[in-house]
């Protein structure tokens, strides 16, 4: 992490030379890390061809231009452009880019503009549900942090589930889905809610039959999945491709991290750099500007130190580009109930997994209250209190959970840090569905 942090935008092209120029002034271990991350980037970039796009930045999820329902004519024109079927060479924006070599599912389900757009339509289309009232966005709405501010998911006929809606962004760095990881992939996850009686309440067969009745969908599926046409699997592939395109952009934390490689340079170094490498100097100026425009408060900076410290250790689990280890831990949430949700255990039947749930991301977490698998904590302050007391005692509590003895200021600082992990969201059109 440290290596790629330090050399984020210097990898590749003419700047290779100056990577070592800078590293003389950094530590020597950084050079080794930079070389290995450059190798990893190179290996990843040779695996896919096609036009490069940066997720969360390039307009992949904006829908087709215009307004109102999508007509068959518009869809035909869209599908007839070969550029919309080219496999995209996917890049992640600053911050998430630390996970560039860990993207999931792209080989099995390559991303194209046409597939992402089809997935976008399906995601927002309530016709996929039994009574045409509920879409994926009903519980993972862009305006509610891609989750929902209710304690539990609310499906057709206002039925309530037993778990809180997690966020549907940054899924590209995550393979197993759901709080208990019971879906092995995003594709498998995407078709689950359609047939879940308390979510969209439909059957897969009825959903497929409905889609076949809509000419705009029929055309798209036949062109995008020539071997399959409309099947529930192709529905899953399209929705997953759209979800992988929902990647969140840099936060104040990321801008500050990206600037760190320049932070120790003295005026003399900077003068040398300006003369020897104007391009790198321009990078420096840009990074400095971005930090100034997206500042982290002193409290947030202290919170960051706590978050990553050995003493507080949030980063024992909230780690990596998406602040999530993709593992399952028991924090004791809901374990004081009479018959607690046993989480991962229900999937694995392994004793130690009792009450363990998947670590969620910290990115943009300020937008997705309430928190935890059961939505039982209403604010980030309450979350910090839960950690401060060392979780809720139970026989399977993670050994990483111990009382933290945080003072009032430290608690505030941790919350401030989490707020500083708020980045930009991609533009997403929720309208324009096939007529
Ligand atoms: C009725 C509300 C509701 C609807 C509708 C719904 N979801 Fe969910 N979603 C949830 C809840 C609740 C969970 C967590 C369930 C669990 O873990 O058992 C979840 C989990 C997920 C996850 C897993 C995220 C993670 O971190 O593991 C993804 C991705 C997702 N939903 C996408 C979708 C898509 C795509 C659709 C439409 C096909 C959809 N959801 C429809 C409520 C809903
Ligand atoms: C042992 C691993 C672990 C450690 C250490 C840890 N977390 Fe978590 N975190 C998780 C898991 C797992 C969940 C979900 C638990 C559940 O729902 O039962 C979670 C949930 C959260 C949530 C709620 C997110 C949401 O979308 O609902 C926040 C916020 C959070 N943690 C912040 C922190 C902070 C701050 C620290 C340090 C004080 C920390 N975590 C330490 C594993 C951990």
How is the topology of this model organized?
Layout: H1 2-7, H2 16-25, H3 28-47, E1 52-54, H4 72-79, E2 89-91, H5 113-124, H6 136-139, H7 186-195, H8 204-212, H9 215-224, H10 232-245, H11 252-263, H12 267-276, H13 278-293, H14 298-307, E3 328-329, H15 344-348, E4 357-358, H16 380-388, H17 408-419
Parallel strand pairs: 1-2
Antiparallel strand pairs: 3-4
Bound molecules: heme C (2 copies).
The site of one heme C (HEC) has 28 residues, from helix 6, helix 7 and helix 10.
Strand residues, percent = under 5%
The strand count comes to 4
Tally of contiguous helical segments: 17
Distance between the termini: 47 Å
Using the coordinates shown, work out and report the CATH topology of the largest domain: Cytochrome Bc1 Complex, Chain D, domain 2
Mean pLDDT: 88
Structural class call reads: mainly alpha
- Going by CATH, the homologous superfamily of the largest domain would be Cytochrome c-like domain
Number of domains: 2
Which strands sit side by side, in order, in the main sheet? 1-2
How would you sum up the major sheet? 2 strands, parallel
